[in-house]
Every structure is written in structure tokens, then in C-alpha cells.
Amino acid sequence: MFSNNLFVGTELSGNQIIKKQTKLCDILTYYLNQPTSADLDSIIYEVSIHENSKNPKDGDLSFGISAINSGDIDGEYYMTKGHFHTDSSKAEYYWGISGKGLLLLMDRDRNYTIHEVYPGALLYIAGHMAHRLVNIGDKLLNVGACWHAISGYDYETIKNLGFPIRVFKNANSYKIITI
Ligand SMILES: [Fe+2]
């Protein structure tokens, strides 16, 4: 059987592809500092998702690619909002495609780990761990993902409580700030 869906380099195209853009206006409050001069229309990241079914059932999978732009808000690197899975038994795989980033993982007791993301890196995310990507490079960060279609997304916890660690620019590298 031939597939109409193509995963070429960093592009996902074909049928049942959903693209979601997150602009600065959608995520500004997640940043430690929120400069009034920031361009609220700038695109922080885009996610392309292949949804296999409109009514997913247990066992179905979804596939996606996240593309996080390079940049920072008052020194804090561009990042995804991050989320917990509503169903904490549903794990997920990430893998680095291009660019340089960090994957932040955090459990509900706010214990965290930090993982480097680079082309070829394979990252297993246990179902109970919130996950956020941070682009620490000067190019686009592209990361593939495969997850259970019925994982569910809890964005609210992160929106309200954030992560206990933030990633800022530091000369040619990055620095972690704990809050
Ligand atoms: Fe997820």
C-alpha cells in the first residue's frame, strides 16, 4: 500500500496533516521577563501533526514534527509551552532531526531532568513526565515525535505553575536558571 503522507527532511505533508503555530502572543506569559517591545506576531514554533483518526481509540498513534525557531525573549530561549499527558500511562518518543536543543522533563512533584537534543538523539518520555523543548542553537530546531493518540494534553498545569528551570543565553552557550 502506498502512503500519501511524506516525511521528507523536516517537512511533513500529505493527508490528515494539521499545522499549529504558536506565536509570541500565545506564549509570552510563559517567559520570565515579558518586554513590552516584543513583536507579538513572531512565530515561536510550529507543529505538524499526522492524525490517523478523528476519533482515536486506545492503541492508535499520532506522529508529528515540531519546528522551534531560533531566538530569545529578553535572553530566555524560544521554547514550547510544554505539557503533561492527561493519561500518565501514555509515553512518547522524541528524536532530534536538526538543530540543537534541550528537552526538559518534569514530574508532578517538580523533579526535573535535562536532555540534549541533536540530530539522531532518541529521547523516551515516560507517560507521567511533562515535556518542553528549548532551542539553544542559532538555527531551526526540528524534533520528531510519536505518541499515543489518546494521551490527552494538560497544558494548564504548565501555564499556571511553569517549569522550575529556565534556559537563558550565555555567551556561546546556555545557562540554566532555577526558580
Ligand atoms: Fe506529549
Structure description:
This protein has 179 residues and is mostly beta strands. The chain has a single domain (6-178), classed as Jelly Rolls, CATH 2.60.120.10. Helix content is 6%, strand content 49%. The protein is built from 2 helices and 17 strands. A hairpin with a 5-residue loop joins strand 10 (101-106) and strand 11 (112-117). The model has no long low-confidence stretch (mean pLDDT 94). The chain binds fe (ii) ion. Fe (ii) ion (FE2) binds at residues 83, 85, 92, 131, 147, 151.
Roughly how much helix do the residues carry, as a percent range? under 10%
CATH topology: Jelly Rolls
> What is the second-level CATH architecture?
Sandwich
**Quaternary organization:** single chain
Q: Quickly name the level 1 CATH class.
A: Mainly Beta
Number of strands: 17
Indicate how many domains the architecture comprises.
Answer: 1
**Considering the protein shown, what is the CATH homologous superfamily?**
Jelly Rolls
For the terminal residues, how far apart are their CA atoms? 51 Å
By secondary-structure content and strand pairing, the structural class works out as mainly beta
